[in-house]
Amino acid sequence: MSFLADKVFVFLLAIAVDLLFGEYPSKLHPVVYMGFVGKLFDKVTQQKKNALRFIAGAFALVVEIFVFGAIAVVVLHFRKVESSTFGIVLFAIKVYLLKSTFSIKSLYQHVSRCYTDDLETLRKNVSYIVSRDVSKLTKGHLYSAAIESLSENISDSITGPLFFYILFDLPGALIYRIVNTYDALFGYRNERYEWFGKFHARSDDLLNLVPSRLTALVISFFNPLRAWRNMIKYGAIKINAMYPMSAFAGVLGVGIEKVGYYKVEGRLPEKEDVKRALKLYAKVVVLILATAVVVLVWQTIQKG
Predict the structure, then answer these.
(1) Please, how many CA atoms are within 13 Å of residue 76, restricted to the half-sphere of its CB?
(2) Helix 139-154 vs helix 271-303: angle between axes, to the nearest 10 degrees?
(3) Per-residue DSSP letter, 269
(4) Which residues pair with 54 in a beta bridge?
(5) Which tens digit of pLDDT belongs to each residue from 46-81?
(6) pTM higher than 0.90 for the full model?
(7) Cβ(121)–Cβ(102) under 8 Å?
(8) CA 248, CA 228: separation in Å to the nearest integer?
(9) What's the whole-number average pLDDT of the chain?
(10) pLDDT of residue 116
(11) Which residues 6+ apart lie within 8 Å of 151 measured at CB?
């Protein structure tokens, strides 16, 4: 099996594992251990000056990238999968690591739990997928938050890692996931993380410039006029996230709003819009995966 053919089969099996089983148990999930260095550096530099906090945050991310990148490079050093136990184990490790960089089934499951009329249940389930305070949000804003999370995470949890896997194989996907994880942990503009997480946030912005727009492009396929109208009007509000979110809202024909931060005009979503959003999500994911397979096969044919 050629190296690139191996790359295609690793991808297909990783997708199959995700669709069948969803997320790994937390103790087995590599992402759980991403950020360990950052948390350590954050703790020991909390009382230090801003410049030192910035350097510590950047250095922690570089160290984490080096560690996981080295693991991926070592695994890829053995390019051929042979019918030996060693070859099978290496192939399984590649699948395990690649699958950990994206999340298709669990994202669907988390948002599907927001398909409820019960306000307290809705608040509880939305709180699991967004960082904002949900305690005083109305149903419309809670459904909006769920749909925002669903559409934004298509880029973060699917398109992004697969884009970098296509370009740079397993190291690319893992590095993307590390940067994205660090941004999720430390990339906040508050007193504690303004400087420590600044490098993480800017790095995540840079890596997502292309994936976010590719995601929006795929979403727009299902209603180009409304999607592009929203993207042109609202896309620049946030450097990346508003492109898929506004396109998604446009296709659904709803408005979305994070009070005090951004707003896409239109009626706020209702319960049935969550179901419609999940159906649209499934269509978008199928199109993304089909496109990725075509590109990977094309790579194999071109270089095989």
Answers:
(1) 20
(2) 0
(3) P
(4) none
(5) 989 999 999 999 999 999 999 999 999 888 877 555
(6) yes
(7) no
(8) 10
(9) 93
(10) 98
(11) 219, 244, 245, 247, 248, 249, 277, 281
Is the pLDDT at 83 greater than 70? The verdict is no
- At residue 128, the 3 state secondary structure works out as coil
Give the percent of the chain with pLDDT over 70: 96
Please say whether the beta carbons of 213 and 238 come within 8 A. Answer: no
Distance (Å, whole) CA 261 – CA 245: 14
CB 158 within 8 A of CB 226: no
Give phi and psi for 302, each to the nearest 5.
-65, -40
Quick count: other Cβ atoms within 10 Å of Cβ 19? Answer: 13
Helices assigned H by DSSP within the chain? 3-21, 30-33, 36-44, 50-77, 85-99, 105-112, 119-127, 139-154, 160-186, 198-207, 209-220, 224-234, 242-252, 271-303
Candidate from 23-37, 254-268, 282-296 with smallest mean pLDDT: 23-37
* pLDDT digits 0-9 by tens, 273-298: 999 999 999 999 999 999 999 999 99
Query: Which region, left, alpha or beta, applies to residue 43 given φ > 0 means left and ψ of -120 to 50 means alpha?
Result: alpha
- The pair of structure tokens assigned to 246 is 């506004």
Structure tokens at 241: 């996230």
